[in-house]
Write a structure and sequence with these properties.
Length: 80
Amino acid sequence: MKKLKNKGYTYTINLANAEDDGSFACPKCNTSISPEDETENNYEIIDTKIVNNELTELVLTCNKCGCTIKLIGFHQDSNA
């Protein structure tokens, strides 16, 4: 696991509020971050958290501005 870059600049994004395709803008520099981008040109995954075999948290770094972004809200209740 890599150490978090710029620890003081960690943003949390709830994916329930993201676009339908899962993309969102970096909260610091507005770079488009999309799960479809597998090149790691715009971001780099630095940590994952899995609970009961389900992804619950993903931590990434924006490659443009270097801020750390914590993604939550992967699991959507079917009753919600």
